[in-house]
UniProtKB/TrEMBL annotation:
SUPFAM superfamilies: Winged helix' DNA-binding domain. PANTHER family: CONSERVED PROTEIN, PADR-FAMILY TRANSCRIPTIONAL REGULATOR. This is PadR family transcriptional regulator. It comes from Streptomyces rhizosphaericus. It holds the Pfam family PadR. Residues 185-208 have a biased composition (Basic and acidic residues).
Amino acid sequence: MSRRSGVLEFAVLGLLRESPMHGYELRKRLNTSLGVFRAFSYGSLYPCLKTLVGNGWLIEESGSTSQDALAAPLSGRRAKIVYRLTAAGKERFEELLTHTGPDAWEDEHFGVRFAFFGQTSRDVRMRVLEGRRSRLEERLDKMRAAMARTRERLDDYTLELQRHGMESVEREVRWLNELIESERAGRDRRDGTAGQDRTTERDEDRPPPQDQSEDADGPPRHRGGSRPDPSDDTAK
């Protein structure tokens, strides 16, 4: 499977995990929610859907209402096919969510992975973000070195274009730094709250202290505030 088709598989499974959709609706979501797929066509999407159905990760259902079903024979249109994620498809998507290799850091795949960060564990998010930052820092070093070597031979417009590219990468690195710090702060808050909860539980498990206060004119009070038994010799 090519890298691009692998990204499409991941995106389709992720969107269908949210709700079943027919092909046109799915393509719209790919274009609007995941802008990286603007260049995709039905010729790319439907073979992917057929493959996912063949793997048992999707099933096809008729999505027509009762009125549409009656009108379909008259209009000559076929009923819309709705694609629904199977249990095996959910497992496949959850498996893909855990992948943090270099493919997850590349331009095309990272945008799709980031779109599903809400369904991704914190540790995986951190590895993907740090991997993406590392990849961009390497790219930035290469861009700076290339500009230093060639700036004397470049015209002003080409030089400005390269500078614009560098600034775009620098902005993304700063953005990634903020995201990583936010993830770390969230983890620290979670760990701190867990520690406070454990402390509270320990405090609640402790027995209440016994009341050892004394009356101004008499002996220490008995537990429960009861008076001494008058028949007790010590009370006489």
